[in-house]
Design a protein that fits this description.
Pfam families: ARMET_N. It is found in: Secreted. Belongs to the ARMET family. Keywords: Disulfide bond, Secreted, Signal. Helix 2 crosses helix 3, helix 2 crosses helix 6 and helix 5 packs antiparallel against helix 6. This protein is globular. It has a domain of about 90 residues: NK-Lysin (Orthogonal Bundle). The chain is mostly helical. Helices cover about 55% and strands about 0% of the residues.
Length: about 130
């Protein structure tokens, strides 16, 4: 019985962690992929790549870029808190978790879920999950 409870607890934690900071993780992984080879440890090159990447983003990704200060119209900037750990080869998930302590909005961003209108039961639909 104890092993069953432990298994369920691990299962719940694994699925709960899946949705955390999904926009931040995706954007930072895209940025890491765009950094020129040989400049992975250069903080200035990473900052430049972040700004170039954020100039082309839209939607939730653009909102994240605004939160981290990579856009010209951003009110505050935590670019050093993003580029410095990336220059140390810290994984994007860890960088996002550290940014969460600075600004909780960064990890609150979620991608919109696609709705399959043919199989969905509108009577059982949660309003919070699917906003029209």
């Amino acid at each position: 019985m104890r092993t069953f409870i432990i298994f369920i607890a691990i299962f719940v934690v694994a699925f709960a962690k899946e949705d955390k900071c999904e926009v931040c993780t995706k954007v930072l992984n895209d940025i890491i992929a765009k950094v020129p080879s040989g400049k992975n440890n250069n903080q200035d090159a990473i900052s430049k790549t972040i700004r170039e990447h954020c100039a082309t983003t839209k939607g939730k990704e653009n909102k994240l870029c605004n939160y981290i200060g990579a856009l010209p119209e951003s009110a505050a900037s935590v670019m050093n808190d993003v580029s410095k750990p990336l220059s140390w080869s810290m994984p994007a998930e860890k960088v996002c978790e550290k940014l969460r302590t600075k600004d909780a909005q960064i990890c609150d961003l979620k991608f919109d879920k696609d709705i399959d209108w043919k199989t969905i039961d509108l009577k059982k639909l949660k309003r919070k999950k699917y906003v029209f």
